[in-house]
Amino acid sequence: MAEARIPEFEVAADEFGRDAGGLGPSGAYLNIDLSAVAAGGFLPGDRDDMQNHLWMIRITATKDCYIQFSLGAATATNDDMLFQAGTEAQKLPTGTNYVSAIAFNPADTGKLQIALLG
């Protein structure tokens, strides 16, 4: 009888190997108002530490939006990553400490929240 193979895939985890689904919010949040004008802010915590350690984040958006992660202030445009309304846990991109977002539909307004998980 042939041995069953399980496909290999990466499960989002923090630097200690803890699954993102088992991590809770650390109490540090970045809230961004979504509209036709890009807005953003620095992630809470030490800016240098953000760049040097692996962080898991939870992104929640009430409307579809474009998101840009950067090192230092930047402005999101419709050329950036599309994030559909909902909630998703992922790794904070390496070397970033700032998030900017703009609504996908210029007529929409909503909220985007980034929570540091720990």
Layout: helices, strands, pairs:
Blueprint: E1 25-34, E2 39-42, H1 47-52, E3 56-61, E4 65-70, E5 81-83, E6 86-91, E7 98-103, E8 110-117
Write a compact overview of the structure shown.
The protein is mainly beta and 118 residues long. It has one helix at 47-52; strands spanning 25-34, 39-42, 56-61, 65-70, 81-83, 86-91, 98-103, 110-117.
Uncertain spans: none
Question: What is the 3D shape?
Answer: globular
Largest beta sheet: strand ordering: 1-8-3-6
Q: Which range best describes the helical content: under 10%, 10-25%, 25-40%, 40-55%, 55-70% or over 70%?
A: under 10%
Radius of gyration over all CA atoms, rounded:
16 Å
Q: What is the tally of helical segments?
A: 1
What's the count of strands? 8
The assigned structural class equals mainly beta
- Overall pLDDT level: 83
Beta-strand content estimate = 35-45%
Order of helical and strand elements: EEHEEEEEE
State the end-to-end CA separation. 43 Å
Largest sheet: 4 strands, antiparallel
Features:
about 120 residues; mainly beta; four-stranded antiparallel beta sheet; 1 helix; 8 strands; about 40% strand; globular
3D architecture notes:
- The protein contains one helix and eight strands.
- The model has no long low-confidence stretch (mean pLDDT 83).
